[in-house]
Amino acid sequence: MRILVRLLIVSFLAAATSLQAITYIVPTDRDLVKRAEAIVIGTAISSHAEITANGGLVTVARFEIERAAKGLIADHVDIVEPGGTVGSLSTSIPGSPRFENGKRYMLFLIHNNQGDWATYGFGLGRFEFVEDLHGRTILTRGDVSEGLFGFDEGSWAPHVERLRGGPEFLKFVDAVSASDSAIARSDYFLDRSQVIFESFPEFRPRNTAFVPRALATRPDYLFSGNYRWNGPTVTFSYCCVSKGLQPGLDGPGAVAAGTSNWTGAGANIHYTVGGNNESATGGLPMLGRGSSDNISAVLFNDPFNDYAASNVPAGVVGVGGISKATSPSQFVPGDSNFYAQTLEGDVVIAKSTSLGGISQGTFNLVMTHELGHTLGFRHSDQTAADDPNVPCAAPLPCAAPGQAVMASTVFGNLSGLQQYDLDAAQTVYGSGPVCTPPSITTQPSGVTITAGQSTTLSVGATGTSPTYQWYIRTSSDTSVPGATSNQLTVSPNATTNYFVRISGCSTSVDSRVVTVTVNCAPPSVPTPNASPSSISSGQSSTLTASPTGSGPFTYQWYVGNSHDISSPINGATSSQTTVSPTVPTNYWVRVTGQCGTIDSPHVPVNVACTPIAAGGVGAQPPAINVGQSSTIFVTTSGSGPFTFQWYRGSVLDFSNPIATSSSTVVSPTTSTTYWVRVTVPCGSQDGSVTVFVNAPCTPSSITTHPAFATIAPGGSTTLTVVAAGTAPISYQWYTGTSGNTGNPIAGATNASITVSPTVTTSYWVRVSNNCNTIGNNSTTALVTVSANCPTATITTQPASVSAPIGTAATLKVVATVTGTTIHYQWYKGAKGDLSTKVGTDADTFITGTVNVTASYWVRLTSACNPLTFIDSNAAIVTATATPKGRAVRH
To answer: How many CB atoms lie within 10 A of CB 111?
Structure first.
């Protein structure tokens, strides 16, 4: 059985530096729903970092909640996750969830030890809504190409993250949230091969082979900061017998196995296991309990509840790293780098209840990995920055999961330290890695090809960091430029011999010589392609020939029918050439290969004579007032030369010629049509345009200027200007005092504008029309932002009245307010009944025709805050019978 462990490195930058690693366990979806205190769907709208009361760093993300599947009932929620940057203080925790503003997420939430909401198990409780190219809504957590990592809880099998159908998964969540024992369909998982995203990230190279680097330096194997013991002779105590040493597992035995593995690396590392030390209480400073204790130790079964103190999520197996080090001042003779001298290393293991059924062998391997971090070693498949999204790549020494104990994913079937781990130990603390000379395991093979084809030669080799150089075998061997991998793709013109030289460890070995035999095929060429096959005069077409046979090929293009060699095209000697005929023309190409010459069929290029570009006749401006002028113009296409003749009147009316240039100025008193004839060598084309003369125009003016307003912080108000004059009337709003055009408001081109300033701000508007292009400036409207938004005071309540049936009644309220304006909303019904709106923004309300007795009341709202209001009493409008005339007898 292969057991997979994924380890994340957490870097903490503060007064003291701590480097640590985290191992996760993944619960089932049903257990995730049951353990979450709340489950919501919402959109991330903002985030910021802040310092907590105990000096920690957290990032707070605010979400607008659109739906709650469990627990939380609110309009928004703040999610608090560890890590962030404030000024020069920074905590970086890979795996701590971060959210992109504007994106939708499904969040599984719990309260942390500070009482704040946080996602369950870092990335375990963070699902992002995405849409594939089929339009399906899909839920993912983590990178859609890779997802989560680690163990499946309970079985300790390698976790394989799967995509979830959005609507189907939500039904499952709703059902299990309603009842833990609910029978809910779990067929919401999608086949990843059937899901196509617009941009699908590449898989990380998890199965690539071990890539040693013979010339690697110490920092190539270390974390950022170059943490290194000056002399790695360390005894690791363990704690604490009084609290119980990892029930169900041999904790001291795991420490003995891990220290023995590193001591046995033969690199002057002397790691040993000591005894129980109840004073080893410091642990790792990042886990929330202050400074180091100067005791290198393994703390079993989380004896001091470090995980809870630091909000480490459920499902974490172990954390290990460097607890105390000096600044980077340590110098190693013969090395130009400086190192931070490690003074203390610690490992903290989670409580046994979190470890499920982990085997002793896997536990020993995890302990070896964690102790490797105390030596300063980075993950073998990541860089020194330990970003899980940035894989290790040459020239760094790298080893993929399954190839090294120090890989970010540890396979339980490893027998101990691998070559990469040994090289790391030897390079950082010993005399450097052992170099294995190259040896050929698979020789290249000869092949026969047809001239113009290609083939790939391959060689198999072993050794430390082998390098390759391919050669052509002649009386004096010639190297093939750029041929420095174990494969070589060649396309020789004639039969050629090749071999490869493999070098490493100051020696080399040559492969056998192989022959690529080349057979010759005569050339064949179909009708060339012309793109486009039809052009306008002055445009171009690209001719392309696609011959087959034994190359390389030479080309010569001609004008005319095939085999007519009287009109060669100068310089047209490649497989493509560009032509610009002015009349329909045929073209063909002669192709010469290794085994002969052939002429292609000819291809026609048609030419249409359109000297006026599409939509190329116009007037600017297209409409004028009497006494104004417009420029009429024509835009040409093709190469010319062009001649122009403008006329007044409809097309083909030659009685009123006016100009012979591409543009001319006209000043008609009534709407008039003009046309132009454009002539080129291939022919001519006509086009026309009408210049419209507008009716008399009344200049714009302002009749009502925008008014002052007061709003509360975060509030808004609408400013309005009333203008007169001939339409269309144009508006442009500005910030600042009237006449200052330095701050136009983008898109504010209507008579009204709604603004939400954060501080007191001035606004004004410029009004103009066709006959007042200079425009009119409004007065300045000051919008005051005040935290104290006064409530209106009703001085006279609306009075009850009687009205004859068939007539209307008038109700009025009298109110005052200081520093803002009042908005009015009248309602029909009892006071507080908001179901029937009847009149808006007036202190007086006239009812419709009275047919029955009814009640009316009004809500008064302060303009500076829509939530600041006062309600009037209800006024009763009593419907009375219409009096009838009475006959009087005399």
So the answer is: 12
